[in-house]
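Record pair follows.
FIRST:
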Amino acid sequence: MICAEHRAYPDLEYKNILIESLKWRSIHIGLMNSHKHNKTFSVFHLGLILALAACMVVSAYLFSPSWAQKGQVSLRAILEDQGDPVRWQFLLQSAIEQLRTRHPDLDISIKYTTYPYEKTEAEILKAMTNQTPIDLITLDPIWLGKFVEKGILTDLTNYAQNWGRQKDWYEMHWDGGVYNDRIYAIWAWTDIRGMWYWKDLLNEAGVDPNLLKTWDGYIESAKKLNAALEDKGIEGVHLTAAGHSPDISFYPYLWMLGGEIVEWKSGHPTRGSYWFPPYNSTEGVRALEFIREQVNAGIKPQKNHYWGKEFLDRKFAVMLEALQHHVHLNTTEQKQDFEKKVGFLPMFPVPNQGNSSATLMGGWELGMPKTSKNKDLAWELITIILDPKILAPYLAKHGNLPTQVPIGEGPYSSELSKSIPYYDELISMMQIGRVRPSISEYPEIADQIRQALDEVFYNTSQPKEALAKAASKSAKALGW
């Protein structure tokens, strides 16, 4: 990307140019007079001199402040398509218009390319390898460590400190953009997974929704639902076995039992202290045993995942998912109608009544690659996108949840609560929400946990054995 040079001259420079052009005109007229008897001096020379003088005078006027040409700046972005590439237009149009208002001397535009989730990371890495000038990217928080260690991201610490809005964020979301005590990204919006159910289907099966709250009740409910609904081709409970299965089928249960994916530990052979994977602990094994109990009860692992569409199509009576931003409600009336039909519990099932639940929060961060040629403008654009006046309408329109307290619980929350189903309950889950590690090795660790889950889903290993193998691989990936 090439940023056109801004060519507006200040008043003093304009005057100097005009004076110089007049001087040249005088010199050349004098030259003409001194050669009026020179046979080689012709009308052609006179015309050339006068044309040159005229050009210099006109140029002075054209580049004076009153005739200043706007410098052209074309920002470039690579963005995840959010399942609907058109939705970015809604957000970026408002942001760019405000950026132009702040810089009337610049002709600012933005060119962006969107990719589905499974391609976004690779396309960003390819652009960075090619040293393509990119000013803005969306990144999954789990990519942060990898991107920082590859030298892809601009350090935003000084920008963010001067901005001074850190306290407006929920702490976990602000921390999600920090790596090695430096800020490299700002978490723009999030999603929270909870328990959704069709009221009429539970009623038909004689299942009290409160029964879903505990592990034993959840499995008992699944059996009743399967028995009552199987003739209609409807399954009782959805069990995620897709590529992101740890997010839904393992981490929440690990966390609510007190376990962790990684923890800081001393005695590392090369680093002194570093991250260690303790997820095959007693808590981890118990969490995976709950998954085995579900499979043994007739709950089928679902390899294909459509982010809630399968639930909205009434193929399942109960689903754990961040369903809210796939519903696409626009009015309070639509929200109320939806809530009459679909119930929601702001939790994952817990081992026993009284246990605290847990859930995973995802979403997207905004970052600036080091290849940006317009860093100050790119940062300013990020802050405008994150301005509650700009961002809140976008979140309301698309059902995403805020990472900023003023939007989540402050004056802007009323706008979101008009269309997002069970908004207050979803926001209450911030208290039990957790995020995945942002360390560079995390994607590899997540895949090893997924393999352990697959072994339990399809009964090729017992939970303890599957987790032990996975944790050994993860330890090796972390250098232990």
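SECOND:
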Amino acid sequence: MHKRALLVVSVIAILALGVVAVSYAAQDKPAGPPGPPAVQSAVSHPAGPPEQFGEGSHHRHGFHSMLKKLGITDDQKKQIRALYVGFRDRTRKTRTDLMSLKDEKKTMFLSGKIDQQKLAQLDDQIVKLKTDVMKEALKLKRDRLAVLTPEQIERVADWKAAKAFRARMKGMHHRGGMPGKGMGMGGGPED
């Protein structure tokens, strides 16, 4: 149950970053070639940072590098952008309702008059709305994958595998143990 709650919180955090990125992208954009706001990771995040996320930041470099390495065509950029716009349109009311519920909950806390029953109702509604947004975000990921060619998907898979390997090695380093110790490989107490 704890892992599921952590997953929900993680997805919501990612979506919140997407909202910030989109609001940033909606500001006056400098002249230049248009680019998709949602290709940051063709697989991992439903709301990647926009191209102009920051001069010299590692996000900008990584974004352009990823586009080049994947070989995303202009047509694919348009398709992915359209998918992201559709996601934002489909989730607009849900996201607005979610913000209202969070505001209502915060107001309750700030007033110091906490109604436990009302708080429980708000929490239930928030969980439902977050679940609805998460379903759409996962659909967006699947739809973005469908835009990629088999070769591009293979590259993404290679990057994901390398990232998982690096994370595993980093975890092994921090734990100071052997690969099988506490890492789900038959040597730890959680196996």
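COMMENT: DSSP finds five helices and no strands in the chain.
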